[in-house]
């Protein structure tokens, strides 16, 4: 009996040591990852698929994705969580949130994680236009991911109907006005049935579309340090006046303000022949337009140009050293040439590094969708998106004053001088 017991015990111990017990296996490093759902389409499915693929190749890392709403919702939730001691370790937030996140002590720079020559080569490959909203004071605070420029979409069928060349979008402000008049249709009662142009001006992104007017007019709105703005310069006021005149003088655009989400809907149903919006809408337009369409850069006044836009990866100070390493690994994976190309093709956002455009997949894509090259090529004349310290309040006052002009509540001169005065007050302590 005793021999049987010892034999059973020996067998049991042998079995116990033949496999690693569950309690001794290292738990995966967990990351909470905030992601904004800012553009229409199956963005969450695409992100989920990429996360699942990363986890499959990196079973020691677990990523918990939190879809936090709009960009504005996401940064508000991230900062609230930071102040409450429950911040995420990683987030995609607007590139323009960089100064605010730094001022709040919410994020840490990526530089200490960039150690090898391969790391440095990866960082150097991002387009300089995107890095303008990702670096300050010789530190890298954001890694470009969901990035864009503003481009002009136009309905080639409606151009043909109006007797215009469907392969030649307006290249200057004068051409925008003259062609816009031919593209604007009215019924027998004088009611507009088709607009020549729509530019989003309502909500939170009026300032961004405004930069598609100020940049071609050779005007920069803020300092690289984010502590000074130049909103009352003559070139800036001239750009505001032109935006107003498109509706009230030239009558090729709706009066008042136009919501961000309205513009692509109107374009897809033929209510407007031209729209200005993010290149991030390219996949949406490709899939849903039942007409031939073109994509073109911003029309020139004195030069070409557009602001960059979109979101960066940010690393939060809440991350432990192990979580920082895991987050960095994930960010590098997401922005690798193959994945940056795949993301661009799936969403319409601009592939953020030059190597992505050299992949076989991207080369094949641009042969099929040459419109995708417009945003990339426009990066040569792109400027940083409007971003300052105390960014939400400064941006809101600029938006409010732009919308006041577009609703005839203020003149362009009054609005920009008011915006400059108030911005000076808000930024005084940061100089």
Automatic annotation (TrEMBL):
Signal peptide span: 1-26
Coiled coil: 402-429
Pfam families named in the record: SBP_bac_8
Location(s), subcellular: Periplasm
Keywords, comma-separated and alphabetical: Coiled coil, Signal
Cross-referenced CDD domains: PBP2_UgpB
Superkingdom classification of source: Bacteria
Gene3D superfamilies in the record: Periplasmic binding protein-like II
Transmembrane regions listed in the UniProt entry: none
CC terms in the record's Gene Ontology section: periplasmic space
Record-stated family: Belongs to the bacterial solute-binding protein 1 family.
Protein name as it appears in the record: ABC transporter substrate-binding protein
Organism: Pollutimonas harenae
